[in-house]
Design goal:
The chain is an alpha/beta fold. The protein folds into 3 domains: about 60 residues, Roll (Archaeosine Trna-guanine Transglycosylase, Chain: A, domain 4), CATH 2.30.130; about 120 residues, Transcription Regulator spoIIAA (2-Layer Sandwich), CATH 3.30.750; about 190 residues, Vaccinia Virus protein VP39 (Rossmann fold), CATH 3.40.50. It is built from 11 helices and 20 strands. It has a 7-stranded mixed sheet with strand order 16-15-14-17-18-20-19, sandwiched between helices. A 6-stranded mixed sheet has the order 2-6-5-4-1-3. It has a 5-stranded mixed sheet with strand order 7-8-9-10-11. Strand 15, helix 8 and strand 16 form a beta-alpha-beta unit.
Length: about 400
């Protein structure tokens, strides 16, 4: 049986943990065993000796991230149970054994009871991204857990933790985006690398669409899996329409629009590399790419100068706010972006608009869109409220895990 250092909480600071919230803030700690290091596994107790949970110690204002509220005798057994539980959820969601889709999130941090850890599955390759020193330390053990789940289907495990481990975080009292919910780390420089095997293919299927994923050079783990359901919804509207896909990255929305018979699709991103990926993905799926054109451009400049009468606009920007301190400027940016779209889109057009900023909650985002609508003076109605898919679950005890918000709007 493994033994772990202890962290003792003030009696008036235990209530959130007893309600199964996985974060223990530094101000809640009454005492601790010795000089704990970043990433140390610790048990959490009340000052009356009541066991509360076990997690990773951190040096920021979030001092412990709890990964189990039950006593743990062997960590490796726990990791295996966590991955098996996560896989079962993806089976229930119809993803784990789908013939139409073989790219999905296998493990979603707090949503799967593993704060600080993301694992995405790309047709035989598992991509690990650690956001905490504690989870980073366990990478090799996670490889064994993934092997146990997938068996011979697993071809490779790639660690893509370098950016997330060495990104300078916002102050923890301000941080709320999932990418900044880790403490400043005093650790040797890590290098992204394969922890196991070699990938057999970088092509995946998403709702039968073929997509090339670059988990080595791409953003996040290589592809924005969280928009899968929303891309499918777009395809229900795009047939015969002129579509503008802004902040297109590798062109997911554009692929779906082309696949459903859009009349014209324009893809815009400021990154030349993103446009290369977009063009490649269009060619992988389209019998003819003549209806598609891509542009390396600042989105705001492109939209301001555009003279095409678009029927559909997709506004899927990167996170405008990485923490609470940037929230006000983010809301202004969302207002400006949506106002530009409302002024440009043709009457009877549809806007798919999103925010992935965790610091901006759904009410704030809709408020920004509403302000843009008022300023535009157009009659605008909400057709759909959108969010992240089932493989990005949110723990009911950790509502902060909800980050993706979207609206589908009809503009007259």
């Amino acid at each position: 049986m493994q033994s772990f250092p202890q962290v003792i909480l003030h009696s008036n600071k235990i209530h959130a943990v007893k309600r199964f919230h996985p974060w223990v803030f530094s101000g809640a700690i009454k005492k601790k065993d010795g000089d704990l290091k970043e990433g140390t596994v610790v048990e959490v107790y009340s000052d009356k000796g009541e066991y509360l949970g076990i997690g990773h110690y951190g040096m920021g204002s979030i001092a412990v991230r709890i990964f189990s509220f039950n006593k743990v005798t062997a960590l490796n057994d726990l990791w295996k149970q966590k991955f098996e539980s996560a896989y079962r959820l993806r089976q229930v969601a119809g993803l784990a054994e789908s013939t139409d889709t073989n790219a999905y999130r296998l493990l979603n941090a707090e949503g799967d009871g593993m704060p600080g850890l993301i694992v995405d599955w790309y047709n035989g390759t598992a991509v690990i991204q650690a956001h905490s020193k504690g989870m980073y330390n366990e990478r090799e053990n996670f490889v064994e857990a993934i092997k146990a789940v997938y068996g011979s289907r697993l071809k490779a495990v790639y660690d893509k933790s370098n950016a997330s481990m060495h990104h300078k975080p916002a102050k923890q009292e301000e941080a709320s985006d999932s990418d900044t919910q880790h403490s400043a780390l005093n650790t040797q420089h890590s290098t992204d690398s394969y922890l196991y095997g070699k990938p057999s293919d970088d092509l995946v299927l998403e709702n039968k669409h073929r997509v090339k994923v670059d988990w080595v050079g791409g953003q996040k783990t290589g592809f924005f899996i969280d928009q899968r359901d929303n891309r499918l919804l777009l395809s229900k509207y795009a047939a015969g329409k002129k579509v503008l896909n802004t902040f297109c990255y590798s062109g997911g929305f554009s692929v779906y629009a082309m696949g459903t018979g859009a009349k014209l699709v324009h893809s815009v991103d400021s990154s030349a590399k993103a446009i290369e990926w977009t063009d490649e993905n269009i060619k992988l799926n389209a019998n003819s790419a003549s209806q598609h054109q891509s542009f390396v451009s600042d989105v705001f400049d492109f939209m301001k100068d555009a003279d095409e009468d678009y029927d559909i606009m997709v506004l899927d920007p990167p996170a405008f706010a990485k923490g609470q301190s940037a929230r006000h400027s983010a809301i202004k940016a969302y207002t400006r972006l949506n106002h530009t779209a409302f002024k440009k889109i043709k009457s009877g057009g549809i806007v798919f608009t999103f925010s992935c900023s965790q610091a901006v909650n759904p009410e704030m985002f809709q408020g920004a869109v509403t302000a843009a609508a008022i300023e535009s003076g157009r009659n605008i109605r909400i057709l759909h409220h959108l969010t992240q898919p089932a493989d990005h679950p949110v723990s009911i005890y950790h509502p902060e895990g909800l980050y993706l918000k979207g609206l589908v709007l009809y503009v007259e």
